């Protein structure tokens, strides 16, 4: 082609072969051990630690009686966050260490915000003693309360009082979790007891939950009665569709329900972004493979085409009660190809589909359609405030502005999160200009509203990174993506951090994969498409079919590496 006179730089952004080297888990440790050194350092905890390590669990042991520098102070919360599960060994003198109590507060905080598991182990104390603060726990708190009274400095006094309140709450909370009590279990035999703990850890570490965004305001209500449907013990097989426009939170609801319930089933699988994956070469087969591998718990089945896949799936689904979520479906054939006929499903199996297309479902055998409602005004303001101000209501002077922005978000959680994050920490001027832009956008044009967040990204570098990720790297490992893009001269780490800050990107906590809400990804691709609607060759990025079409027209030398899961994902044409 004559157009090839224009100098063409091809930059291959990614090849799957690197995938094999990436690590699966973002957790640095399996277990974080919190304990009172004075009580159990040389005895119980030491044995537990050894048993955990011997069972192959990476274990972080924190000893409150060791002197620490500031450095470690900062490291500890990180270690807790990066541990799959925290074991808190509650012993006689646990409460007499403020170090232990502070650590417990951090552990429970991580439990709330990141969903890390907590396993309390009651070593020669009863849960009720901890909960009601009796015995040695009572004594320790008497001392703290005296300290508060005797503190002359008002500020320090308030601070200490606040800490004491936090510790009490933490003890109540931890005692309410399902824990293990030495006296009741294994007849008080420590070594048997330790074996049990190791088993419990093993079960928890193997489970694979999905990461969801924090601040799930009103989610129970928004999930309707799907949760009770999943929990009913009937043998009915059922398919429920969660419907609604982009950004309303369908995927979040589906993940939330999945996390709450997958353990009730013999097998479970969450197939993300079905629409997108099935458009890729071999996409349906990949979905089938994932489904099988999830349900057969990691056993790899060789599938070479979709027909063969369906046969295997039929075999696997026929004899197990499963929970399967198909996220973002837009064609009936995606359903057919992945799941086949509903009458294959074993009794009690449940299927959840999320889709933007309500019409789609008429044609298929869906039992119930659940339409996700928009958030109402108070919920909207609360969600928005978490993202804009880090608390559940606007800070002083911003109430009016916040209410106006919230009004334009139409009760869509995604818009509230994205606009909230992009206005966070900004001056009134910036808020006013954002409002002006919002006012000019016709109702219902959600993509345009979201684009305000893209426009407000600090520099071109972040914008480009966002577009690259939207076009090529959604679903890819974060560290791997950083390696590739850093090689192209990006400052990817900081950029990714900025995008996460703006809610334009998330990183799966357990699998370390990059993830964008579908609508945010669509927005990126739309921005690229609009660079040249008629001539794909003039766009800054090409993906999937169009990339191949353009390449076919050009006389350029292409070297690409192939792998089973993906061929070539990205090219930059300058
Ligand atoms: C907190 O930990 C408990 C016990 O491990 C777990 O059941 C619960 O799901 C965790 N909380 C969250 C929000 O994940």
Condensed summary:
This is ADP-ribosyl cyclase/cyclic ADP-ribose hydrolase. By secondary structure, the protein is α/β, with parallel strands linked by helices. The protein is built from 26 helices and 15 strands.
Overview of this protein structure:
Helix 13 (283-295) runs parallel beside helix 14 (306-318). It is built from 26 helices and 15 strands. The longest helix is centred in the N-terminal third of the chain and has 23 residues, at 154-176. The model is unreliable at 1-25 and 555-574 (pLDDT under 50). By secondary structure, it is α/β, with parallel strands linked by helices. It is globular, with a radius of gyration of 26 Å. The two termini are 17 Å apart. The strands form four sheets. It has a five-stranded parallel beta sheet with strand order 3-2-4-5-6, with helices on both faces. The protein folds into four domains: 3-204, 3-Layer(aba) Sandwich (Rossmann fold), CATH 3.40.50.10140; 219-371, Rossmann fold (3-Layer(aba) Sandwich), CATH 3.40.50.300; 377-440, Helicase, Ruva Protein, domain 3 (Orthogonal Bundle); 453-541, Arc Repressor Mutant, subunit A (Orthogonal Bundle), CATH 1.10.10. The structure holds 2-acetamido-2-deoxy-beta-D-glucopyranose. Residues 111-112, 115, 117-118, 177 line the site of 2-acetamido-2-deoxy-beta-D-glucopyranose.
């Amino acid at each position: 082609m004559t157009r090839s006179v224009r100098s063409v730089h091809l930059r291959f952004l990614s090849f799957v072969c690197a995938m094999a080297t990436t690590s699966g888990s973002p957790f640095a440790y399996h277990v974080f051990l919190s304990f009172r050194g004075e009580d159990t350092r040389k005895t119980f905890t030491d044995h537990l630690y050894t048993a955990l390590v011997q069972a192959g669990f990476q274990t972080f042991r924190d000893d409150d009686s060791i002197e620490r520098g500031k450095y470690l102070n900062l490291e500890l919360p990180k270690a807790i966050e990066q541990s799959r599960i925290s074991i808190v060994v509650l012993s006689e003198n646990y409460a007499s260490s403020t170090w232990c109590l502070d650590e417990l507060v951090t552990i429970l905080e991580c439990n709330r915000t990141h969903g890390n598991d907590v396993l309390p182990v009651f070593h020669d104390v009863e849960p009720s003693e901890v909960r009601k603060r009796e015995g040695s726990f009572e004594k320790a708190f008497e001392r703290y309360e005296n300290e508060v009274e005797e503190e002359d400095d008002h500020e320090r006094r308030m601070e200490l009082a606040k800490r004491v309140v936090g510790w009490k709450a933490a003890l109540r909370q931890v005692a309410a979790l399902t824990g293990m009590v030495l006296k009741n279990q294994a007849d008080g035999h420590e070594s048997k007891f330790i074996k049990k703990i190791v088993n419990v850890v093993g079960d928890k570490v193997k489970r694979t939950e999905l990461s969801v965004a924090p601040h799930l305001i009103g989610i129970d209500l928004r999930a309707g009665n799907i949760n009770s449907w999943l929990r009913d013990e009937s043998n009915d097989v059922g398919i429920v569709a969660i419907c609604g426009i982009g950004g309303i939170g369908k995927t979040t609801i589906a993940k939330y329900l999945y996390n709450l319930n997958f353990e009730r089933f013999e097998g479970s699988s969450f197939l993300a972004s079905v629409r997108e994956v099935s458009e890729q070469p071999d996409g349906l087969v990949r979905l089938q493979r994932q489904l099988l591998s999830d349900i057969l718990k990691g056993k790899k089945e060789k599938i070479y085409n979709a027909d063969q896949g369906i046969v295997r799936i039929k075999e696997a689904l026929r004899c197990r009660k499963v929970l399967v979520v198909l996220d973002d479906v837009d064609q009936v054939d995606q359903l057919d190809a992945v799941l086949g006929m509903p009458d294959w499903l074993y009794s009690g199996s449940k299927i959840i589909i999320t889709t933007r297309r309500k019409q789609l479902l008429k044609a298929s055998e869906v039992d119930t359609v659940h339409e996700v409602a928009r958030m109402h005004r108070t919920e909207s303001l609360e969600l928005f405030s978490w993202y804009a101000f880090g608390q559940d209501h606007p800070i002083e002077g911003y109430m009016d502005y916040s209410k106006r922005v919230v009004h334009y978000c139409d009760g869509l959680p995604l818009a509230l999160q994205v606009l909230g994050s992009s206005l966070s920490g900004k001056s009134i001027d910036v808020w006013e200009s954002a409002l002006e832009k919002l006012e000019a956008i016709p109702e219902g044009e959600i993509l345009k509203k979201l684009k305000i967040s893209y426009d407000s990204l600090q520099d071109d570098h972040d914008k480009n990174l966002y577009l690259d990720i939207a076009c090529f790297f959604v679903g890819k490992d974060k560290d791997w993506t950083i390696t590739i893009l850093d090689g192209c001269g990006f400052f990817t780490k900081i950029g990714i951090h900025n995008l996460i800050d703006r809610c334009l990107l998330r990183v799966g906590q357990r699998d370390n994969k990059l993830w964008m809400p579908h609508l945010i990804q669509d927005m990126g691709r739309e921005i690229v498409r609009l660079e040249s609607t008629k001539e794909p060759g003039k766009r800054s990025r090409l993906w999937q079919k169009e990339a191949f079409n353009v390449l076919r027209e050009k006389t350029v030398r292409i070297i690409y590496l192939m792998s089973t899961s993906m061929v070539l994902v990205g090219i930059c044409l300058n």
